[in-house]
């Protein structure tokens, strides 16, 4: 096996390649199911992760993969990403409170479970412990994570991962 050691890599135009580094990675996998009928944003139990940045210039890359389903064809559930108690990834439209995740609407006559994925690069400017979590808001009937609504079948695990990207 060979080892390549260099002091600097340059592009043809003389500029250098960026050197980003991952400082730490924390991840949580939710393997049990969760359901909610709350019409206000509620934490998805077991779908959170805590990380403490080593520098205020670090960024945190948050990766979320959930399996979700809604019970009623005419209603939907929405999900969002929260840092501590602050929703992050918010658009500029003040009426768009469903941030980061698409609304899930069940098709009429079918039992549908969808994989909902979201990535967000956060700039928290902090060296304190931060908790990233997923919340759901039900706009109608019942919203499920990790199970189908009709047969109560397990529909896969959900994960949340936070990676510190060093400056």
Describe it for me?
This protein is an all-beta fold. The chain has a single domain (21-166), classed as Jelly Rolls. It has no helices and eleven strands. Strands 1, 2, 4, 8, 10 and 11 form a six-stranded antiparallel beta sheet that branches. Strands 3, 5, 6, 7 and 9 form a five-stranded antiparallel beta sheet that branches. A hairpin with a 2-residue loop joins strand 5 and strand 6.
Q: Determine the strand fraction and express it as a percent band.
A: over 45%
Q: What structural class is derived from the secondary structure elements?
A: mainly beta
- Which regions contain 5 or more consecutive residues with pLDDT less than 50? none
Percent of residues in helices comes to under 10%
In the CATH scheme, the class would be Mainly Beta
What would the average pLDDT be, to the nearest integer?
Answer: 80
What are the secondary-structure elements, in order, as H or E?
EEEEEEEEEEE
- CATH level 3 topology: Jelly Rolls
Summed up, the helix count is: 0
User: Could you say what the CATH architecture is?
Assistant: Sandwich
Q: What is the general shape? A: elongated
Tally of individual domains: 1
């Amino acid at each position: 096996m060979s080892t390549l050691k260099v002091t600097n890599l340059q592009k043809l135009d003389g500029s250098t390649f960026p050197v980003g580094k991952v400082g730490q990675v924390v991840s949580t996998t939710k393997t049990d199911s969760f359901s909610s009928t709350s019409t206000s944003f509620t934490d998805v139990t077991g779908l959170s992760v805590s990380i403490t940045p080593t520098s205020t210039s670090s960024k945190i890359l948050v990766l979320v993969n959930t399996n979700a389903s809604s019970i009623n064809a005419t209603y939907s559930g929405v999900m969002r990403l929260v840092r501590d108690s602050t929703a992050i990834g918010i658009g500029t439209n003040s009426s768009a409170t469903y941030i980061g995740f698409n609304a899930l609407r069940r098709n009429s006559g079918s039992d549908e479970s969808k994989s909902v994925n979201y990535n967000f690069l956060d700039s928290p400017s902090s060296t304190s412990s931060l908790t990233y979590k997923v919340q759901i808001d039900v706009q109608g009937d019942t919203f499920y994570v990790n199970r189908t609504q009709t047969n109560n079948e397990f529909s896969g695990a959900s994960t949340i991962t936070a990676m510190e990207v060093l400056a």
